[in-house]
Amino acid sequence: MEIGHPDRPLAVWVVSDGRAGIENQALGLAEAVQRLTPAEITIKHVHWRPRADKLPVFLKSPALLDPSSDAVVPGPGEAWPDLWIATGRATLPLSLAARRRSGGRTFVVQTQDPRLSPSRFDMVVAPAHDELAGDNVFRITGSPHRVTPARIAAAAAAMADRIAPLPRPRVAVLIGGRSAAFDLTEAHAADLADRIARAVRAAGGSLLLTFSRRTPAAARAVMIDRLGKLPGLIWDERGPNPYFAFLGAADHVLVTEDSANMAAEAAATGRPVHVLPMLARKPGGKFARLHADLEDRGATRPFTADLPVWTYPPLAETDLAARAVLEAMAAR
Length: 332
Prior knowledge:
Blueprint: E1 10-16, H1 20-36, E2 39-45, H2 50-53, E3 83-87, H3 92-101, E4 107-111, E5 123-127, E6 137-140, H4 149-158, H5 160-163, E7 170-175, E8 182-183, H6 186-203, E9 206-211, H7 217-227, E10 232-234, H8 243-249, E11 252-256, H9 260-267, E12 273-276, E13 279-280, H10 286-296, E14 300-302, H11 317-331
Helix pairs in contact: 1-11, 4-8, 6-7, 9-10
């Protein structure tokens, strides 16, 4: 599929506050568009001045951005992009401004539920578990992401000298942390670590362990202490996070239930995804809906000590969203 100008690639701006979990949604969707049609991707990071950050969406303008932000308005002689893909609360005023100021030239896509009427954007790519509805809402399981078979295979190959000697099955363990809905106390982390260790030892396998920025320090420390004697690799936060490599090398993926992003990304591998329980701080709500969806599609099961093996078609939700974006652009 090729959309846009025959004489040049599609110009795509990816806009976020730069946090990896936020940026990867917009960037993953942009890269999926690029796999379907020639496109040039420009990444934009934005931050509001402290006083402006608390203002309502409709009172913010690009003039109130912190000087450290990238330019989100074309300079003299420059054109607005063909496609604007943004994620996160910080980008909402800018997405609205881009749609208005570009005079319709720019097709504006917002990922996640913007908490504004979807009609204010050209398209909203939203997680199905948010239950957002609208004529221009495209719902997918989870959020857009950057996990593809090619990317994780290449990342694993780049670490083959460290991963290949490890005994199989290789068990990737992706640990999240405290959030509004879940908690990971030191005691719960210790219990999870002990259960994971028993499962890996019983299988005769090895461990590939990585943490998120939300993992509490005490939980991280106790898990490293209790899992550090297993064969495997534990990311020590030095150098790039080997997240993609671990997904590419894994025979099983264990992921804590607090992260919708990690669960959906793990389901793109086609490997068994085992969901680790967390301590609930409030009713499950959208997380319960997401995990029910993933389980219904055959991707996930609750973690048990015996690490059962099963197969399912890898989820390719980001590719579906990219195709929907291009079709909507072509139909304008």
